Amino acid sequence: MAWFAAHAIMYFKLKSGVQNRFTIWENVYLIEAEDDSEAWKKAEVRAKQEEGDCDGSLTVDDQPATLMFAGIRKMITVSHGKEEGQLRHGDEITYSELQVSDEKSIRELVAGKEVPVEYME
What's this model's pTM, rounded to 2 decimal places? Predict the structure, then answer.
């Protein structure tokens, strides 16, 4: 069996009223499966387990909300440094490809500052 990193998109939806912006989480789940197709199905099941409103206590900006599963954005096969199929220190679990306009933006991104980026897929 192989290991995969499943990138699931979750978002917060208000239970009522107008919603002008949506907070999104990209949750990454470690999935063990025979192939991409099986990993995708398992990841969807896992992500759907996160949906809900925490028994009515979930709020966004003090308004009742629900966490919703939007879909799996990408599936990455874990890159093992040594023996295939065995998770080990240093294995590459996932990656993202971004583009910025200059080196200053790179430094700001590393420092955790807000930077305009283009997310490449």
Answer: 0.87
DSSP alpha helix (H) spans, the chain:
36-48, 103-110
Using CA of residue 35, residue 36, residue 38, residue 43, what is the dihedral sign? Answer: positive
Residue 82 neighbours by CB under 8 Å, 6+ apart: 88
* Per-position pLDDT tens, the chain of length 121: 999 999 999 999 999 999 999 999 999 999 999 999 999 999 999 999 999 999 999 999 899 999 999 999 999 999 988 777 789 989 999 999 999 999 999 999 999 999 999 998 7
